[in-house]
Amino acid sequence: MMHFSHKPMFLIFLCIWGAKAADPLGKFCNRNTNISSGGKLSANIDKLLEELALKTPSTGFVATTYGKDQDKVYALAQCRGDVSTEDCSTCIQDATKQIRQRCPNQADARIWYDYCFLRFNNKSFFGEVDTSFGIFYFNVENVTDPEAFNEELGALMNRIRAQAVVPKEEGLGKGKSVLSPFVTLYALVQCTRDLSELFCAQCLAVAVNNFPKFCSNRKGCRVLYSSCYVRYELYPFFFPLDSNKTGTSNAVKVSVYT
After folding, report:
1. Residue 86 burial (C-beta neighbours within 10 Å; 0-12, 13-18, 19+)
2. SS3 169
3. Which of 9, 196, 215, 236 is 20 to 30 A off residue 181, Cα-Cα?
């Protein structure tokens, strides 16, 4: 279990579910990696982003490099494994535009959306677990029977985490658990595809271990790291959707540096 009592936190109260498609869930701009806007490194970042926008939708994942020596850039883009090619394309297009607008002078930047994630760096990060910066969203409402709910949530998370590390699943695990005739629990986890099975399992374990700290007894929660993503809700949010069930939620956002 990770402890964050000595870490800086930033709380933002907002309703995220009605946000426009171009609004990210969060971003990270490493202020210690400032670069010249007209330099070779910056130009290489733009070249890479063009490549990611073009190539990512066909497979849902790209990890690539551009340039050489001190101007070499590493980049990764991944869409959520359940979304369509069209939704993936739209999300990546937004991400490649917004990450440069929001982090215009950084060599290390990341941006999270509901349907995709994108990052670049002038240092290699491929295959490494990165939980140094986390974004947490949790529902402001509590469940009515915490003990029973947490038992079902734990079982569901264990099941889909085991699914995610199976090679053919490409880091994705999703499922649901019927809690009552009127209530169903939905959950999804995903690792970036550059991670090994072991590192994927490690990242998901760190993410889920944050539930007691930030999401205890909450009706919904998201944990977003640079290497993995975890979410559960009491309404359908992954595809294919349960057409007869809908839901919305007000949420609190917490960003944490470790």
Report:
1. exposed
2. helix
3. 215
Fold of 133-257: Killer Toxin P4; Chain A (3.30.430)
Measured CA to CA, the distance from residue 70 to residue 30 in angstroms comes to: 17
Residue 44 CA: distances (Å) to CA of 32, 70, 73: 19, 11, 7
The neighbouring-strand residues paired with 133 are: 257
Domain ranges of the chain: 23-121, 133-257
Taking the chain (258 residues) in runs of 10, the rounded mean pLDDT of each run is 33 35 88 93 97 98 97 98 98 98 97 98 98 97 97 98 97 98 97 98 98 96 98 97 69 79
Topology classification of domain 23-121? Killer Toxin P4; Chain A (3.30.430)
The residue with tokens 């939620």 is 249
Instruction: For strands 109-112 and 26-29, give the pairing.
Output: antiparallel
